[in-house]
Amino acid sequence: GASVIDSSAYRLRADGVDGDSISSGLTFLIVGSPGANNQDSPTIISPLGGADSIFSYRLGGCCGLRYENGFKTVYLSYGFEAIASLELADTVMMRILQWFGVPVGIEEHVLSQPVSGVFLVSPNPFTNLTRISFGNVQRAQGIELKIFDATGRLVKQWDYSTIGKSDCIPWDGRDNSGRKLPSGVYFLKLEAGDYSATEKLLLIR
Question: Is residue 76 part of a domain?
Fold first, then answer.
């Protein structure tokens, strides 16, 4: 658990704990773009009952902890969406998932033939809705969009019959059956004829 020390601390930078499996070597701002830039009063906390500190503010005070005793919990005293680096946000999420024991085995490939045209996902990270734009992608041989979870399982798919002439597809973080998917890293794959591209998505509930 955690106790609140200061609920309106003005702290802007978080540092990891050396040797910690989640946070070691990490440091990031929680203000500015491309983060949400919405942290008006980050909180200082203190670990209780066997919890371990995993992040602390540069100016002092714990801002993240983990706890394990038959179950696992990670608690951050600031909004995850505020991390002002998409790459570092991905790293934090991947390490948390690995600590939870969630497989993160999907392989990422460097593409030898990029898609010809625009391929943009925004916002990313997202909470309720993101938009997948592909305005100039060549469609002569059809187009497919697929979303996989971190284990490589297909969770959502659009084909040419559902995409039609649209150049922007909204995704609300639900699977093919309409169920809300949990927070985590997902991978979007676009295929158009002989071309393909992938994009990492970060869903935050």
Answer: yes
